Amino acid sequence: MSDNEQTNQSWGGRFTEPTDAFVERFTASVGFDWRLYQQDINGSIAHATMLEKVGVLSADEKTQIIEGLEQIRADIDAGNFTWSVKLEDVHMNIEAALTQKIGTTGKKLHTGRSRNDQVATDIRLYVRDQIDLIASELKRLQSGILELAQREADTIMPGFTHLQTAQPVTFGHHLMAWYEMLVRDASRLADCRARLNQSPLGAAALAGTTYPIDRELTAQLLGFDKPTANSLDSVSDRDFAIEFCAFASILLTHLSRASEELILWTSAQFNFIEMPDRFCTGSSIMPQKKNPDVPELVRGKTGRVNGHLIALLTLMKSQPLAYNKDNQEDKEPLFDAVDTVKDCLRAFADMIPAIRSRKDSMYEAARRGFSTATDLADYLVRQGMPFRDAHEVVGKSVAYGIESGKDLSEMSLDELQQFSDTIAADVFEVLTLEGSVAARDHIGGTAPAQVKAAIARARKQL
Description:
- The chain is mainly alpha-helical.
- Helices cover about 60% and strands about 5% of the residues.
- The chain is built from 19 helices and six strands.
- It has helices spanning about 20-25, 30-35, 35-55, 60-75, 90-100, 115-150, 170-195, 215-220, 230-235, 240-265, 295-315, 330-350, 360-365, 375-380, 385-405, 415, 430, 435-440, 450-460, and strands at about 155-160, 165-170, 200, 225, 275, 355.
- A two-stranded antiparallel sheet has the order 1-2. The chain has a two-stranded parallel sheet with strand order 3-4.
- β1 and β2 (about 165-170) form a beta hairpin.
- α3 (about 35-55) crosses α8, α10 runs parallel beside α12 and α14 packs antiparallel against α15.
- It starts with 20 loop residues before the first helix and ends with a helix.
């Protein structure tokens, strides 16, 4: 066999012919898993440290390996590293470079481990690192929402159900609904981190190793809470990646809902908010246009992330234990989900504090659509009328308002009393938008004082 026909040196001992060129390219993952290099090097340093402690490596060999790995890290960071498809993946590229740098000692690094537990460890480390970055950006977005909500705690706007005017709320109260969604998202992210933070290193291919390894030590060195409990499960499941993508899908769904509202509110038909020019684009043909491209794109990317969740669920659904080559397909959807989440959070965290409300437009919109009708019904109930009777009285009042073109607050006392003589002059205190909003003065309510209290509580917990 000639030199250019050699089989892969990492596993080719039992093969009699080289891998087909297409298969070599088809099965290689280095084109995308190279981004695990930091985690791969960190895992190898921990593994080498442990091997020296248990007597598999000498102190000098450990030092050579760690120094060589740090040199490789510096080369990659500087863009001076050549990735080879022939070496298949990030692990073999780094190991080959290490052997080239320090000689035979580099070949000893893989003692007591497999690429199966190596990649499982790398991915957990990578997801954990990304979770920490995402948690920080999510917190920045939450802070931006609180900042805007504080400014808008008294700004009256219509609340909607079925996209029809329902009851008046404040813009600050509406923003705090977004905030509560993100609180749950942050909690889900923290739960995901806690569950994934176990070390698979030492599970080897599927059944552990006969070497006297110390899994507790490598887990500690890599910042894991503990080693995983079962070697088969350690190398074969990717539920932590699925859980991350589930978090990502829910988060993007929340951001998509907020995006939809921002898009509506910037339209001429609503005219509720002004979005800074730097988050918008224009039209190539219509000079008047100011398009809310950032929220539109976030709304669009939600489908992309949802697709990654389905891809990973489908990837795992029929795999027998333990590791299968299918799992190479876990990385691209995971990586893209991570990138998309970070980009969308950054866009929102930058954009939200810069939004300005159009208070007059919001107030006028809240005046339309009989938004204080429920307040009138509550008023009648407080006078002793059964709620169903009050509901009917108010319904007739609204029908009259539609016919006469008057809001409830614009009707005279005589006009209102034609539907019930229970109505007295004090009714107008509850028919104003300000009175309606202020009346819901309880935890979670729309009263500006309650909104500000909710913001204060959130700031303490953030």
